[in-house]
Structure formats: C-alpha cells, structure tokens
C-alpha cells in the first residue's frame, strides 16, 4: 500500500469515495507519464527545437503542414509502443465496480494518446480529440486511422533529432473521400472545443458529487477552470499530482505522488477500511 494510507486525509477521502454516487475524473498528460509518454510541459515536452504548444496550432499547420504532420506522426508512432499504466487500469476497475453498483464513474481526458480507451475505459470523453483520428481540411470527413505510417512519405520521418526535406502537401495524409489534405482531429491552441463536447462536459460537471484531478498542470483552458467551477458548487475536489498546481488551492485534498502509485490505493474497493 502506498504511504498515503498513513495520511489522515486518506481516511477522509475514502469516506467521501464510499458515499460518492457520481465520480468525475479529469486527467492530463501526467497520467500517461508512467507509460513513457512525454508530458507537455515537462522535460519531454520539446520536439526538435519546438514546444508542443508551438506546433499544436492552426497557424503552424497552415505555415508548414509537413512539419506539423512529422510532429504528429512521431507522437502516433511513439504512443503505439506504449501501454496503459496502473493509473489507467485503476480507473477502469473503478468504473466497472461503479457500474455494477448502479453508480456513475466518468473520465474527461485532455490527452490525445488514446491510452484510457486502450486500457478499457468506456465512460470517457477525449475533450481534445485523439492522435488516431483525422479530419479532412476540405470536406470535413472524420475517420479513425491507425495506419503506421499514416502515409508513405512519413515513413522514418519525424525523428526529434533530424530535420528532413519538406514533404509536398500532395504526399501528406489525404482524405479517402475527396483526396484533400487531412489534419489530426484534435483541438489546437486557439481553437474552441467542439460544441457537443462542451455540452457533455457541462452535463458531467453538473451531475458529479466527487471530482478527481489527475496529472494536469491546470494551465490549459477551459479544462483548467473545471476544478474551481466544481469546488464553487460545493463539490469536493481531490488532486493527484507530483507537484502543486492552480487546482491545488480549490482541492479538499492534494495527494502528492505518481498517479500509478496513488490511484490504485485511493480507488481500491471499499472494504473494512471504512
Ligand atoms: C479555447 C490537443 C476558446 C493537441 C491540447 C483563458 C485564459 C488563458 C488562455 C486561454 C483562455 N482560454 C483559451 C486560452 C488559450 C489556450 C490556453 O489555455 N493556453 C494556455 C497555454 C494558457 N486554450 C485554448 O486555446 C483552448 N481553446 O479555449 O477556445 C478560446 C480560443 C482562443 C482564445 C480564447 C478562447 C484549446 C486548448 C486545447 C489545446 N490542445 N491538446 C495536441 O495534444 O497535440 S492541450 C494539451 O495540453 C494536451 O492535451 C495536454 O493534455 C494539455 C494540458 O496539459 P497537461 O495535460 O496538464 O500536461 P502538462 O504537461 O502541462 O502537465 C502534466 C502534469 O502532470 C504536471 O502537473 C505534472 O506535475 C504532472 N505529472 C507528471 N508526471 C506525473 C504527474 N502527475 C501524476 N503522476 C505522474 N506520474
Ligand atoms: Zn475530404
């Protein structure tokens, strides 16, 4: 059992968890860190000389679709080699138990790596999209695409330490329906989240009675605001992170440590410890 079981707030959390009827979990890049997926703002957040936030924008894609596709191809190929970790799996177990007990357990993830889905989470909303879905820049056709590589021109490209020649747009991933250039179906910085996603987020925020914030630096909006929105409604917020963040101030409890260590203990079935 992780050392947190000796902390007084552990027993208080377990009381809350045993009474909760509708748990909502917000996850960020930190929950995938123990799977070996670099976080956005940690040491791994750089690719070549760019920050991820420089490349995850419509203007970067307009300026060089070749460079942005190399970045996303690199991330697709990297994530493909990784597995969900104990934190992802603890959430899947909890969701299954809650379902059996007629209670709700829902995950809102900012991550686009698809690891929650691969772990088996079903009550899941990928609010920023997914690396393995494309959208046509011309006809809007959206499809899941797990091809490796996603197109021949990107084979062996995207390595973080080498710049190759610009790939012609006509050789970049194209739409199955109209042959135009496709983009990753993710929400870039400066783009609004999709209306149906925003609606679903509101619905889940309004129905939860316990809110867990796991592995997010809480700086990217609108997700960064959810903890304070929930706390203002008098719902307990519990943060799991290796550092404090802007969400810590509105959290009833902040469990410091790695999600893969802490979540399995926090979310373990309620037995005689209550
Ligand atoms: C929007 C998809 C309307 C792409 C991503 C209000 C105020 C200020 C700025 C704004 C605002 N409203 C809008 C903005 C602009 C912008 C924004 O928030 N900018 C930030 C940088 C200030 N937001 C937007 O543009 C959003 N759109 O609001 O539309 C609008 C538009 C324009 C202007 C006004 C309004 C769209 C945001 C979505 C961007 N797309 N992803 C892709 O991935 O390629 S976001 C991207 O960042 C990832 O999805 C990532 O998940 C997400 C958030 O980062 P984190 O997940 O928190 O990751 P990070 O690395 O930062 O932190 C990791 C954490 O884990 C750390 O705390 C670390 O301590 C912890 N950790 C590490 N290891 C572990 C761990 N914890 C536990 N265990 C471990 N083992
Ligand atoms: Zn098309």
TrEMBL record:
Residues given in the record as Zn(2+) binding sites: 136, 139, 175, 178
Key words of the record: Metal-binding, Mitochondrion, NAD, Transferase, Zinc
Protein name: NAD-dependent protein deacylase
Matches recorded under PANTHER family: NAD-DEPENDENT PROTEIN DEACYLASE SIRTUIN-5, MITOCHONDRIAL-RELATED
Binding residues annotated for substrate, in chain numbering: 72, 75
Residues bound to NAD(+): 28-47, 110-113, 215-217, 241-243, 259
Record's function text: NAD-dependent lysine demalonylase, desuccinylase and deglutarylase that specifically removes malonyl, succinyl and glutaryl groups on target proteins. Has weak NAD-dependent protein deacetylase activity; however this activity may not be physiologically relevant in vivo.
EC number(s) per entry: 2.3.1.-
Record comment regarding domains: In contrast to class I sirtuins, class III sirtuins have only weak deacetylase activity. Difference in substrate specificity is probably due to a larger hydrophobic pocket with 2 residues (Tyr-72 and Arg-75) that bind to malonylated and succinylated substrates and define the specificity.
A Pfam cross-reference name: SIR2
Catalytic residue list: 128 (proton acceptor)
Family named by the database record: Belongs to the sirtuin family. Class III subfamily.
GO cellular component: mitochondrion; nucleus
Cofactor binding: number and manner: Binds 1 zinc ion per subunit.
Domain spans labelled Deacetylase sirtuin-type: 5-274
Catalytic activity: N(6)-succinyl-L-lysyl-[protein] + NAD(+) + H2O = 2''-O-succinyl-ADP-D-ribose + nicotinamide + L-lysyl-[protein]; N(6)-malonyl-L-lysyl-[protein] + NAD(+) + H2O = 2''-O-malonyl-ADP-D-ribose + nicotinamide + L-lysyl-[protein]; N(6)-glutaryl-L-lysyl-[protein] + NAD(+) + H2O = 2''-O-glutaryl-ADP-D-ribose + nicotinamide + L-lysyl-[protein]
NCBIfam families xrefs: PRK00481.1-3
